[in-house]
Amino acid sequence: METITNGNAISESIGSLFSPVAWSGLMAAGIKILQIIGTLLLCWILIKVSSAVAKKFFQTQVQRDRLSMSERKAKTLNSITSSVLKYVIYFIGIFSILKQLGVPDSSLVVVASAGSVAIGLGAQSVVTDMMEGFFILFEDHYAVGDIVTIQGITGTVESVTLRSTKLRDPMGCVHIIPNGSVGTVTNMCREFINAVVTVGIAYGESIDHAIAVLKDEMAKATDMEELLETPTVAGVIGLDDSAVTIKIVAKCKVKTNLGVEAELRRRIKNRFDAEGIEIPFPQQVVHLVKEA
Predict the structure, then answer these.
(1) pLDDT by residue (tens digit) across 120-173?
(2) Residue 289 parent element (H or E)
(3) What is the DSSP code string of 116-160?
(4) pTM of the full predicted structure?
(5) CB–CB of 32/100 below 8 Å?
(6) For residues 146 and 128, what is the distance between their CA atoms, to the nearest angstrom?
């Protein structure tokens, strides 16, 4: 008898599970899940498409014959525009999902208002970062591809968004710096940069002869495409322990200073060898005193 009762209970449970009301609820839940997945997929597609369109638009501005835009500024504007579009699409997507879940419009307005208050009170640093990001763009402090020093970190600007700046240093490390804490910026990619070379000669050499040789060699260095003008021999800048130090300054194109310095050192070394001018190495003189 008990077995029959249990069987009836199971049958009733199965029957209730497959009842029209239960099926209707499952169908409604499944449709909502599909709608949410579809919304997320649509947001992802819109982000990809908007980023591609923005990139294409700014590339077109660079290639225009009239009123063209510099490539560095186009990359920066593309980075910021893509970031803003991504946040806008995320915002619209979240509100669409909340509406699909049955949240009424009046509640959405309350949520938006609460979010605004939260941003105003608890996210002041975010607002500061975004404002600073706007001024960095507006005043053209730096752009994607520039070599800059920020907070003691020197690297190449990989991206600029309204919130942060991404630098990659010579070691390959990526530094993400909030725009609100950027502070003083040293930009090494504006119009030109100086290549600075110092060379030491022995105290026994003639300074005037060495400077004359350097000036002659620098006049020959104008065949280097990276140079914007003939390098200047600034003269003696130090009387060091083992050498007389002479400084050479060369005005060159941005991002070429390291290569120019290496090439000038090579030419100077070869010329000094040919002229018999000694480049000394550190030496110490030891005096031995005999006690009586």
Answers:
(1) 555 566 667 777 877 887 778 888 888 999 998 999 998 887 788 899 998 989
(2) none
(3) HHHHHHH-HHHHHHHHHHHHHHHTT---TT-EEEETTEEEEEEEE
(4) 0.57
(5) yes
(6) 23
